[in-house]
Amino acid sequence: MASLKELATRKDPLTGGHRMCPGCGAPIVVRQILLASKDPVVVVSATGCLEVSTTIFPYSAWNVPFLHNAFENAGATMSGVEAAYQNFKKKGKIDQHINFVAFGGDGGTYDIGLQSLSGAMERGHDLTYVCYNNEAYMNTGVQRSGATPRGANTTTEPAGKVSQGKVQWRKDLTEIMVAHNIPYVAQGIIGNWSDLTRKAEKAFSIRGPKFMNILQPCRLGWGYRPDATLELARLAFETCAWPVYEVENGVYKISKPKEKKPVIEYLKPQDRFRHLFKPGNEALLADIQAEVDRRWGQLLAKEAPRQGSGQ
Amino acid sequence: MSEVKPGWKTLPEGDIVKGGTAAEFKTGDWRSERPVWFPERCIHCMFCWISCPDSSIVVKDGKMTGIDYDHCKGCGICVKECPVKPNKALEMKPEREGSCQR
Fold first, then answer.
1. How does pLDDT run across A285-307, given as a tens digit for each residue?
2. Which end of chain B is more exposed for a tag (fewer CB within 10 A), N or C?
3. Do A60 and B27 lie within an 8 Å CB cutoff?
4. Which of A129, A104, A102, A110 is CA-nearest to residue A209?
5. Percentages helix, strand, coil for chain A, rounded to the nearest 5?
6. Is pTM, for the whole model, over 0.95?
7. DSSP string spanning A210-268?
8. Confidence category of residue A241, pLDDT binned at 50, 70, 90
9. What DSSP assignment string belongs to B43-85?
10. CB-defined contacts A:B, below 8 A
């Protein structure tokens, strides 16, 4: 694995001067993942915070080839670019290895772009799709998405007298991607650069479709001081609210926290969950803890067969 | 009617803009607080550099050399991630105070 000093010798994929919020996690995802690539990269991004804030005309914050793209077709666009590259390679017009990386927010990945992502994975294109997951449509003003966790306050499911934030549990996109039987699926956080760059390096070393789902706290939609972005992501890992794991050729490898903290330690610092701590919502909090425990147990059970076979 | 429809070779190309030009756009005036670097305490672990959302930690030859105040938005992540104890090598100062020092 490349050390930080080695990574620092590579060209920064993003310049400063983009208009992401102070303390935004999305550019951190981009920098840590793209710096892990030794080879040139071509990037496409689904519509979302990252796309609109890094490419405000006539500026572009990208030091790598970047394709502007619609909301629902990041997977399809990257498939086309990769197919063109394979054709050029076959004709001998290009011989260098290139990593193809598509970025999408949770809106562009869980909901709107799911069909094109699924198609790209099923067709087996050699690309890496990275979801920078901030658990709502932050760019358009914090509307709920399929990635929003239960109980979170959003502008379309606001907490108040009638409702206590989002009613449904979030869907498990990482498992949907595992079900595509692709060579590499990873779920991670931005608070641990060594884990994230290692996962990205591993993804780039594998040929075929790869998917990474990276939790990225959003200071605007989640409501916290901008300097706590990485700390909050680590709390999600430590409370198992956002498990960190990878699935290589169907084999699960789970990063387990030293001590599993109660989920309220992760919910408490965030404004979007503030209403859960009002009297009367104890049952909902217990419900959230129970669901986190249930999903964590379910995940651990998937790793078990590997340990049983003594590998 | 002998209209010739354009093929993919004759359709006009999409706009292509030069990369990396956002560097010309200064976002440093968004700050209300600025990180101030104390080189004598710095252990050059680069944690601030890999954690910066605005590519505003300047490094050269594996060492931190300063902060790009033209683009730093003052989020304070670098200060939070700095592992140096007991006094961090980066501290947040109110913008006015910071600029008077330099």
1. 999 999 999 999 999 999 966 55
2. N
3. no
4. A129
5. 40, 15, 45
6. no
7. EEEEEE---IIIII--GGGHHHHHHHHHHTTSS-EEEEETTEEEEE--SS---THHHHT
8. very high
9. ----HHHHH-TT--EEEETTEEEEE-TTT-----HHHHH---S
10. 127
- The verdict on residue B15 lying in a domain is no
Rounded to 5 degrees, φ, ψ at A247 are: -130, 110
Sort out which chain A residues have CB atoms less than 8 A from B92's CB and list them. Answer: 227
A196 within 8 A of A214, measured Cβ to Cβ: yes
Q: Does A26 touch chain B (CB under 8 A)?
A: yes
How many angstroms separate the CA atoms of A65 and A80, rounded? 15
| B46 is a domain residue | yes
ipTM of the complex: 0.92
Tell the residue number behind the tokens 């300097």, with chain if given. A227
**Contact flag B75-A22 (C-beta cutoff 8 Å):** yes
Preceding amide of A58 cis, omega within 30: yes
Whether the ω angle into residue A305 lies within 30 degrees of 0, i.e. cis, is no
Q: Which CATH architecture has domain A4-302?
A: 3-Layer(aba) Sandwich (3.40)
At residue B61, what is the residue type?
A: D
A23 vs B46, B55, B75: nearest CB: B75
Dist CA A147 CA A186 (whole Å)? 16
Strand partners, A43: A66, A101
CA–CA separation, A190 and A123 (whole Å): 29
Q: How many domains does chain B have?
A: 1
No. of helices (H) and no. of strands (E), chain A: 11, 8
pLDDT in tens, A73-107: 999 999 999 999 999 999 999 999 999 999 999 99
Average pLDDT over chain B reads 90
User: Which pair of structure tokens corresponds to residue A93?
Assistant: 């017009």
The answer to whether B48 and B23 are in contact (CB under 8 A) is no
Which of B18, B62, B80 lies at the smallest CB-CB distance from A231?
B80
